[in-house]
Amino acid sequence: MNDTPVIGVLALQGDVREHLVALAAADAVARPVRRPEELAEVDGLVIPGGESTTISKLAVLFGVMEPLRARVRDGLPVYGTCAGMIMLADKILDPRSGQETVGGIDMIVRRNAFGRQNESFEAAVDLKGVPGDPVEGVFIRAPWVESVGATAEVLAEHEGHIVAVRQGNALATSFHPELTGEHRVHRLFADMVRANREAESL
Cβ neighbours of residue 19 under 8 Å, at least 6 residues apart? Predict the structure, then answer.
């Protein structure tokens, strides 16, 4: 079996190109995903930052929301950054009207918790599972995790707030590692996808 995983980036809105570059640097075949038939062809999926309400509505409009929920329930490895973290939450503390999530991580998130666009910042984050120096993360209108359930593992905190979580094959960060040339988080995710492919082939 070819060891190179095919990882999609949900290309409805947000910083899609940066994720495609980071995934390629992490030795994955990266491709944009907009439609159910494209989703069916990938081994894993990144849900990028952007505006979570817009991504939610476009996912429904493009007919990809229900197939994505089904694949996540079936164990598709998925990684969400910023708005993507909100999309992977089982519950949003302050949802916009009509906002839906994919779910997959037993956590409650607060939208825009770190402040508005002009309060964006960079910070070094000690991320469990990523060896070496702390990861440089960019926080842009970033959410944080208010609480997690028993099945979710906290991977990182910043100033006392949870900013990275993993549950099974689902990974989420409040911050954007793809905007800093930092590829170790994408490499961690690519390794998760590889491990899942191996498990499924047994």
Answer: 9, 30, 46, 48, 81, 178, 186
Catalytic residue among 18, 178, 183, 186: 178
d(CA 32, CA 104): 21
| Residue 176 annotated as catalytic | yes
Task: Tell me the per-residue pLDDT of 146-185, one tens digit each, with 9 for 90 and over.
Answer: 999 999 999 999 999 999 999 999 999 999 999 998 899 9
Is 66 marked active-site? no
Of the candidates 82, 182, 183, 186, the residue annotated as catalytic is 82
Predicted TM-score (pTM) of this structure? 0.96
Does 82 qualify as catalytic in the annotation?
yes
Contact yes or no for 149/57 (Cβ under 8 A) = no
Q: Exactly one of 176, 182, 183, 186 is catalytic; name it.
A: 176
Q: How confident is the model at residue 2 (pLDDT cuts 50, 70, 90)?
A: low
| Tens digit of each residue's pLDDT (9 = 90 or more) over 106-137 | 999 999 899 887 789 999 999 999 999 999 99
